[in-house]
Amino acid sequence: MPDATYDAIVIGGGHNGLCTAAYLARAGLKVGVFERRHEEGGGAHTEEATVPGFWHNLHAQYMEFIDYMPFYHDFELPKFGARMIKPEAQVGIAFADGRPPLVIYTPEFEDRTYKSIAQFSKHDAEVFTEVRRKVLAKDQYLAAMLYTPPPDESRSETAGAIAGKLFELWMELGFKPGELQKSPKVLIDDLFESTEMRAVMYRQCIEWGSNLHSGNGVGFIISVIWLCGIHYMAVGGTHTLAHAMASAALHEGVDLRYNAPVTQILTTNNHTTGVRLKDGRVIEAKIVASNADPRTTFMDMIGWDKLSLFRKERLANWRFGPEHVLGTPSFALHEPPDYKSAKRDPAINKCFYTIVGFENAQEVNNYIEQAYGSRVPETPGAGTWVNTLWDPSQAPPGKHAMNGWFFFPKASSLTPAEWDDVRSTYNSRFLSLWARYAPNMTRENVIAEKLYVPFDIEKKIGMPEGDFSHGRPGSMVLGVPRAYSYRTEIEGLYMCGASAGGGGLSAAPGYNAFKVIADDNGLAKVWQREDRIY
Ligand SMILES: Cc1cc2nc3c(=O)[nH]c(=O)nc-3n(C[C@H](O)[C@H](O)[C@H](O)COP(=O)(O)OP(=O)(O)OC[C@H]3O[C@@H](n4cnc5c(N)ncnc54)[C@H](O)[C@@H]3O)c2cc1C
């Protein structure tokens, strides 16, 4: 006898699992979410990482999909406590040699972005402005691409139509069909001539998990230029967004259980029948959606022996890292950084995301290649955030909480002892570098600091190798590698996390998984709205 029965079970209460669960409940199903940890959100995570009173986002810092995310709007997340701020100066790079910074603003400040880029190249300013205008004019199709399952999974005509619109956009941008295969680096170098602009764009490859040197340059160019000026921050820390998502799901009737790791997905004759929890309880349901990564889902929870040859090969070729692996330095500060570049343009001191430690594009390229080569980059350049500049609630009065991103090799590249060494030395090396860009970043300005590495991400959040997209398919012999896969070959089992539809706090995989489940099970299309094409 089962210990409990639901219509649908979601394994994991990451933001995607919560999204799938909330829509399933809205469609009338009795839904249980079983989360391994004591709190929801997965990578939407905030804690007092340095000293009490200073709140640090250890994973996701910025939310770039808020304007488009159906989960946010359909469930009115602000009513459940989600609060967002959109800083004007969005992405910037500071230089140590007295050059002005390069700053990209939100689209309504197009002239300021133009002026900032034009300091280095009028050509680059014109290209960026033109590309961004054209991309933003098609933003609904870009959003639709994200929030629609791929054609063979959605069984709708929309997915094919959207692909056509995006191809049109590519042509409008002046590219040729053959250039779809070019790498991000080749396309960036084709578009922009200044080393400053290239440095910003190369660094964005890290943020977006794109391989600088191979594949999908088209996605990178369109998506990055679309998204790099529309980032939001969550007031109170990123976890407040996850909390609002969980509250909305609970309000919808979802039964959300914490400290409840799932160890097994139960099947009979290739049909899902439910799950077994770590404490031995059996929970029954005909529909199971997994927010965990594919390795955990199929190898640990289903078992190698029960997998089809296709799935075995897909798993054998599943690749964690190197593109999606970051480490997070956290600093509790007396005062925020005051950059040398601010003498030329003070906006850099109040920029949401500031790149520090690179003087040119070649240095960013070297840094990225070292991490691809399983090495911790020699020069500890970082992307940095000081969220207390906008939201003082994240630190004691007058003080500041900073976080950053180092691009690191995947967790298994180093031994635990080597990661210990990185943890205890790398932030100090970064601080020395930081002081070359912002002279007030001395040891005296630092109240406390901590470094969180891919090894910790794997242990704490369960992202294998620290890969924030839960991996990606590599080359395959038997099948076609696909980036997306919501339906599985086991009836009733679906994937609803980052591995199915891409990383980032988009809630797209969770939303698309629900659409596929609804399609298979004749559920009400509760996502449909007249003012939305996806
Ligand atoms: C350092 C870092 C910085 C990042 N910065 C950003 C950013 O600024 N903006 C952005 O949009 N994205 C960012 N990301 C990416 C983002 O955090 C992830 O892509 C996102 O969290 C994936 O969401 P998810 O819900 O699919 O999976 P996860 O967040 O990984 O959640 C999965 C959930 O499933 C649970 N789970 C796993 N196994 C089990 C089990 N057996 N039983 C029960 N529960 C289980 C986990 O505990 C977890 O709660 C960052 C990631 C990292 C690591």
Q: Please, could you describe this protein's structure?
A:
This protein is an alpha/beta fold. The protein has a domain of 178 residues: FAD/NAD(P)-binding domain (3-Layer(bba) Sandwich), CATH 3.50.50. Helix content is 36%, strand content 17%. It has 18 helices and 22 strands. It has a 7-stranded mixed β-sheet, sandwiched between helices. Strands 10-3-2-14-22 form a 5-stranded parallel β-sheet, covered by helices on one side. A 4-stranded mixed β-sheet has the order 1-13-12-11. A hairpin with a 2-residue loop joins β11 and β12. α3 runs antiparallel to α4 and α8 crosses α10. The longest helix is centred in the C-terminal third of the chain and has 22 residues. It is globular, with a radius of gyration of 23 Å. The two termini are 41 Å apart.
